[in-house]
Structures are given as structure tokens and as C-alpha cells.
Specification:
The chain is mainly alpha-helical. It is built from six helices and two strands; from the N terminus they run H-E-H-H-H-H-E-H. It has a two-stranded antiparallel sheet. The radius of gyration is 14 Å and the shape is globular.
């Protein structure tokens, strides 16, 4: 399962569940919601995030890339708006949730070997 899209999807779903346990404003109602949220978040990050990165390039350069955290939080909130059973309570929760999701996902990928 090393490096496959399935392993990355499952790891991201698990990371979403862990973030929901760690952060009060993020909730996932069950396994199906976590799997669907991970799938939708992957789609949002693949299709919409690159366009937003290009559109916000000047502010991203001015903030030395820190604005990317804001975009990641917005992508998390967008996914929560699209997936029933997955909720992010507000902007700041989305921002912190996105940072935690990155950390947890990286740790799980390192431990479980999700990437080559």
C-alpha cells in the first residue's frame, strides 16, 4: 500500500479524525464522514487551491508564504461546507485545524509509510 492513492486517502481520513479529537471546533460524525471529507478535501486542494495560490501570489509574497496557512484553513472550511457530518466552526478553527491536519498527516505518513 506504500505510496498509493488509497493509502494517502486513508491516512488523511485518519488524520481528520485525530484533528477532530484534538480540536474542539472540528467534528467528524463517523468513518464515512471522515472518508468523504478526506476525498473532498483532496479534490478541493487539487482543483481550487492552485488557482487561489496564483490569484493571491502578491499577498503570499508579502507575507513570506504565511498566507498559505489562511488558504489551507479556507480549503478546510470549504470541504466542511460540502460534506455532511464534517464541520469546522469558524475561520480561526479552520486555520488551526489545517495546521494540525498538516502536522498529523505528515506524522502518519512518516510512521505508516504513505509516501515514497
Amino acid at each position: 500500500m506504500r505510496g498509493s492513492w488509497l493509502s494517502r486517502w486513508l491516512i488523511n481520513a485518519a488524520a481528520l479524525g485525530i484533528v477532530a479529537l484534538l480540536l474542539n471546533g472540528v467534528s467528524v460524525s463517523g468513518l464515512a464522514a471522515a472518508l468523504l471529507a478526506a476525498f473532498v478535501l483532496g479534490l478541493v486542494n487539487s482543483l481550487i487551491r492552485p488557482v487561489l495560490i496564483i490569484l493571491t501570489l502578491p499577498i503570499n509574497i508579502l507575507t513570506l508564504g504565511l498566507f498559505t496557512f489562511v488558504l489551507n484553513g479556507l480549503m478546510l472550511q470549504m470541504a466542511s461546507a460540502l460534506v455532511p457530518g464534517f464541520a469546522v466552526s469558524g475561520f480561526w478553527t479552520g486555520l488551526v485545524g489545517a495546521i494540525l491536519l498538516s502536522i498529523v498527516s505528515s506524522l502518519l505518513n512518516t510512521v505508516l509509510g504513505g509516501h515514497d
